[in-house]
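Chapter summary example.
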Amino acid sequence: MKTSLFALLFLLASFQLSAQDPCPIRIGTNLSGISDWMTEMPFVDRMHNARTWGTRNRSWIGGNATNTWNTELTHLIECDEDGYPLELPFWTDGLELEDSQMVFTVWASLDAWEPGIYTFLYDGEGSIEFGADGDIIESSPGRMLVEIIPSDHSFLELKILRSKKGNHLRNFRLIMPGHENTYQTQPFNPLYLERLGDFAALRFMDWGSTNNWGAGDAWLNYDEAADTALVPWEERSQPGYFTWAHNKGVPYEMMCQLCNTLKKDMWVCAPHNASDEYLSEMALLIQQNLHPELKVYAEYSNEIWNWMFGQTQWLNRFYCVEKDISWPEGLADRVQNHLNIWNEVFASEPERLITVAGGQTGWQDVTNRIVNNLDEGSFDALNITAYFGLGSEGDAALDALGNNATAADVAVQVRKNRREELSYLQNQFALAKQLNIPVVFYEAGQHITPHPFGEEPSYANALLELQRDTAMYNLYHEWFEAVKKLVPENQQSLYMNFSFIAGLSARYGSWGILETLDQDTATIYAPKYQATLEQIRDCSPLGHHTSVQQNEAAPFSKSIKIIKQVNGTYFILSQYPLEKLEIYHLNGQLFQTINCNKQTDFIIQTEALPRGAYVLKTNNKHDHLSTHILSE
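The structure predicted for these 632 residues follows.
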């Protein structure tokens, strides 16, 4: 055993000595937006992703009454600063209501919820009920135990029937099992932290509800003259607000805390209509709260050239049309203002700040006309995307195949479109060279969606099939190699995957590299996740070696390492005793069980393992849902 361990340590030392220069791309990820149907599950307190309040008749009215599910009268209720109603039930004069009104919220999907007993905590006096797939099994003042057993198409409802004026119900918390004593000091789901552990940086565009920020509808935030008013700092998202699944997103304090917990660089997007005070206070808060060893990437809004977003409409209306300045030149005014304020706040420690500015990757003229109207030297990186997807010809070819199209057919069309996509990137890199700055990719990965976007395609099944097919793994691997070749020698581009976790949709895109936080990739293959983590770990200190290579694809936890030798020998490094290892085919079939006899460092041989991809799992509870892909 000592001889084997010595040989293993020697190998590891050899890898470290032969480690090469940093890879051309450094991979971070975008985080999914907060919603009541999300499958990313970042917080142990599920009130943070509850839907905003709805209103309803307090009791069921018979006869010809409508009993509307949501009477949408929330705007008429007097609430405290954190959004909790001051008194319930309520009547409203001048409206023909059939009954007094209660308030409710829902979680529309429980697909990624852990089953068990949740703890609901609150302050104040009143009457609360849980419905749908939640049952109150124990109740005392200020505390309830709620049993939640998710099933297909399950959801959860919380209703406030009565709230006492002067001591109204407030400070709601719905804590997932096992976290009642720790949720205040550790607000993040442990599995969420584990699965984010490999990424270099986190982009909070969707966490911050950047698109159409502060508006209930993308088309309602630029029609009135009053919309020219810039938002003061006091109107930002507050930590105590009853939900963060609203149009101002997650508070910046929580973004900093996640980055500090994981030791990851931070990428934030400021609201398009933020006042100078807002921008200054936002930059100052992050400067003071983000760990000083971490960097912050500062971006003005998101895709201000994209006409599907309200910020683009707003900027065009008030900074182009109203000022008689051509589009997109008029956009530079707000971008420059943002850059100036952030640079001023970080003037004493500029090494912590990376300001970014850019344009539309596929329309070089838009990028040129924005960045060439910014002050030279006022931004640190050119900000673009690195997406691959279908062109209009590929969409038409697949549409002709319709339901007969396969994942392989989609992959063929994606590859046909790649040359054009890479030419867009080459043009942007040429601009960055002229500006003498690096390129960063604010979003990257597959953008395999129908044309036009938002319509259900005739080849929907093929799009969905591709998300779990090895063809997608190959597409990702090929794309990483192609993008790396574009990065100039001795430079490194931050590559922000889009996105971390999201469900499948042929109509609107399957953006997540995982479908749910607890996805067991032993049974539901995640090719995007596998390829992305392999790319990250190719740049790890172990790197590649002529005779031995690291072949990890997804983490158990940081307590285990697997090193594969060419002849089929696997060196296992584990910080805890392992009882057994199980090797599975990707289809979920068990291939081999290896008894480890509670060893911590050992060697196994799997020479009988046929060529292909496999999943390795341990009995350890912390590794229950994580995997390693082993392939020849």
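To summarize the output: The two ends are 26 Å apart (CA to CA).
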